[in-house]
Write a structure and sequence with these properties.
It is a single chain. This protein has strands spanning about 10, 20, 30-35, 40-45, 50-55, 60-65, 75, 80-85, 90-100, 105-110, 115-120, 120-125, 130-140, 145-150, 155-160, 165-170, 180-185. It is mainly beta. Strands 3-4-5-6 form a 4-stranded antiparallel beta sheet, with no helix packed on it. A 4-stranded antiparallel beta sheet has the order 7-8-9-10, with no helix packed on it. It has a 4-stranded antiparallel beta sheet with strand order 11-12-13-14, with no helix packed on it.
Length: about 190
């Protein structure tokens, strides 16, 4: 936290060369890289609400992406679509819009807070109604299916490699919780 507000910074892998990317009178949170690595999406908080913004690291320009709410943002691997949640809530829907801007449409009714990972073929996610399952929403068929279930654990974070061979899941447990690495994931 700098100057009383949360901001986004970058540094090299040794923790040196710290560069402040955001600097404003409000919090900027939940950063996610664009598909090409040239921009960062983040939520800019205004009161209890927030919207998604995009900062181009090559031009240093910042653009507001949503105007009716936005929290977690993740760009599709081809860079054409931005998937986002409206709130950083226990339960929130997921929307999609063109990365260049435009109208949004609902893709998923419910994910558990930030638990989604976008791939070329679909979205891996955790639903609040079944936090012990990793689900996959197929873009082509618009069908959802369970790809992993564990009755002993609840998941709160998911990141899946683009080739679907590796998944990293955050698992609720005694603080600080655990990470689970899944190999050979099938969707």
């Amino acid at each position: 936290m700098l100057d009383g507000h949360r901001n986004i910074l970058t540094c090299d892998r040794n923790g040196n060369n710290v560069h402040r990317l955001t600097n404003g009178p409000t919090d900027t949170v939940i950063p996610r890289w664009s598909a090409d690595g040239h921009s960062i999406y983040f939520a800019l908080c205004h009161g209890a609400a927030s919207d998604i913004w995009k900062k181009d690291l090559l031009t240093d320009r910042t653009k507001q992406m949503t105007t009716e709410g936005g929290s977690v943002a993740e760009e599709s691997p081809d860079g054409r679509t931005l998937y986002f949640t409206l709130r950083d809530d226990i339960s929130t829907p997921v929307f999609a819009m063109p990365s260049s801007g435009g109208p949004a449409r609902k893709v998923l009714d419910d994910i558990a807070q930030r638990a989604m990972s976008v791939t070329r073929e679909g979205i891996y996610y955790v639903s609040t109604s079944a936090q012990n399952e990793l689900r996959f929403h197929d873009f082509k068929s618009e069908y959802d299916k369970t790809v992993l279930s564990d009755s002993d654990r609840k998941f709160y974070f998911v990141s899946v490699s683009q080739n679907h061979k590796l998944a990293l899941l955050g698992v609720h447990g005694p603080p600080p919780g655990d990470l689970m690495l899944i190999r050979g994931l099938r969707f």
